[in-house]
């Protein structure tokens, strides 16, 4: 399996998913896979992800820390109008800004809902001062951004088109990185039998990350073993891995074995 990109630009990208419904299991997260899929063509991965309940001090603390670290953050959830929607106020506090009515956000809500915008939906126009809007193609209730932090709804049908807009607009400058991820599948061998091989790879290629994911198929031992990092050393390290497996007589495949095959 191979994922490849080229060029540089080193910035940490975080994903923050907010809502008690995620932690309780009433809703399953769909945002992290969406972010991963969209970053892959840029040779990038999220540097961190956190799932937080409706906990204002914790949300504020995470946002303040990522702000101070000058990170890019995609934040999903908690920007609605109900009392458990805390993200807008937490973002304002984390960025040391007052929460104010954004005139354009208010206009869009009024245009979408008319009289039904009052008295509650208009709360969603209360944003941190000087925030920029993220267009919502579904119902025009905008998300917002502050200094590389992008706040979107918890609803995937709204949030993911908004994420696409962010990547095509404000983050269009995000550079492709020199990144390659390759792996193979070792069959009928225990993970412990390959630890010395893994140690050698880590010693010879300290700039790469090695991963080993054991499992089974049709009751047989299976290990996905691979490396990720800059493209040239990944190719070299994978060649060394194949040579070592050949020398040990370990059977492997370049694609995952299929059950029943």
From TrEMBL:
<dbReference type="InterPro" id="IPR036425">
    <property type="entry name" value="MoaB/Mog-like_dom_sf"/>
</dbReference>
<feature type="domain" description="MoaB/Mog">
    <location>
        <begin position="14"/>
        <end position="174"/>
    </location>
</feature>
<dbReference type="InterPro" id="IPR050101">
    <property type="entry name" value="CinA"/>
</dbReference>
<protein>
    <recommendedName>
        <fullName>MoaB/Mog domain-containing protein</fullName>
    </recommendedName>
</protein>
<dbReference type="InterPro" id="IPR001453">
    <property type="entry name" value="MoaB/Mog_dom"/>
</dbReference>
<dbReference type="Pfam" id="PF00994">
    <property type="entry name" value="MoCF_biosynth"/>
</dbReference>
């Amino acid at each position: 399996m191979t994922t490849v990109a080229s060029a540089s630009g080193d910035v940490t990208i975080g994903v923050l998913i907010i809502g008690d419904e995620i932690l309780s299991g009433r809703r399953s997260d769909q945002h992290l896979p969406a972010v991963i899929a969209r970053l892959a063509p840029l040779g990038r991965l999220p540097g961190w992800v956190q799932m937080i309940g409706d906990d204002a001090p914790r949300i504020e603390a995470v946002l303040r820390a990522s702000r101070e670290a000058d990170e890019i953050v995609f934040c999903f959830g908690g920007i609605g109008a109900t009392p458990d929607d805390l993200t807008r106020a937490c973002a304002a506090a984390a960025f040391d800004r007052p929460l104010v009515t954004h005139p354009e956000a208010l206009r869009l809500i009024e245009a979408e809902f008319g009289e039904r915008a009052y008295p509650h939906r208009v709360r969603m126009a209360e944003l941190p001062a000087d925030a920029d809007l993220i267009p919502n193609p579904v119902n025009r209730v905008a998300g917002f951004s502050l200094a590389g932090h992008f706040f979107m709804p918890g609803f995937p049908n709204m949030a993911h088109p908004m994420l696409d807009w962010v990547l095509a607009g404000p983050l269009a400058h995000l550079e492709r990185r020199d990144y390659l991820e390759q792996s193979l599948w070792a069959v009928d061998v225990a993970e412990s039998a390959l630890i010395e091989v893994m140690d050698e790879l880590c010693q010879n290629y300290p700039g790469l990350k090695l991963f080993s994911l054991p499992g089974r198929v049709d009751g047989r031992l299976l290990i996905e073993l691979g490396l990720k990092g800059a493209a040239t050393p990944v190719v070299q390290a994978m060649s060394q891995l194949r040579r070592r497996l050949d020398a040990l007589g370990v059977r492997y495949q370049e694609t995952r074995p299929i059950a029943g095959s």
